[in-house]
């Protein structure tokens, strides 16, 4: 969803709902392993149009990335989860034929 708060400021919010399920039996008739995880991954961003060519922005997003690996005991590894923050400036030139951006970001992840 995109909201124009006050020209030239815009707010973007959204998210993704993910469900990850797996059920397996190890090679050679090992024990059955099942894993089921649901997650809502939010997103929010603010955009500020500096002028016709430049836009400054900040954003936040959650991280949910299921893994398809098992540990040495045959148990599924937990999904990667975390948060990501970004800030930057985007530019558009030559009637949209050239785009450039510069940004900084921080990513915090669990279950690496």
Automatic annotation (TrEMBL):
<keyword id="KW-0812">Transmembrane</keyword>
<keyword id="KW-1134">Transmembrane beta strand</keyword>
<dbReference type="Pfam" id="PF00593">
    <property type="entry name" value="TonB_dep_Rec_b-barrel"/>
</dbReference>
<keyword id="KW-0813">Transport</keyword>
<comment type="similarity">
    <text>Belongs to the TonB-dependent receptor family.</text>
</comment>
<dbReference type="GO" id="GO:0009279">
    <property type="term" value="C:cell outer membrane"/>
</dbReference>
<keyword id="KW-0798">TonB box</keyword>
<keyword id="KW-0998">Cell outer membrane</keyword>
<keyword id="KW-0472">Membrane</keyword>
<protein>
    <submittedName>
        <fullName>TonB-dependent siderophore receptor</fullName>
    </submittedName>
</protein>
<feature type="domain" description="TonB-dependent receptor-like beta-barrel">
    <location>
        <begin position="2"/>
        <end position="112"/>
    </location>
</feature>
<dbReference type="InterPro" id="IPR000531">
    <property type="entry name" value="Beta-barrel_TonB"/>
</dbReference>
<dbReference type="InterPro" id="IPR036942">
    <property type="entry name" value="Beta-barrel_TonB_sf"/>
</dbReference>
<keyword id="KW-0675">Receptor</keyword>
<dbReference type="GO" id="GO:0015344">
    <property type="term" value="F:siderophore uptake transmembrane transporter activity"/>
</dbReference>
<dbReference type="InterPro" id="IPR039426">
    <property type="entry name" value="TonB-dep_rcpt-like"/>
</dbReference>
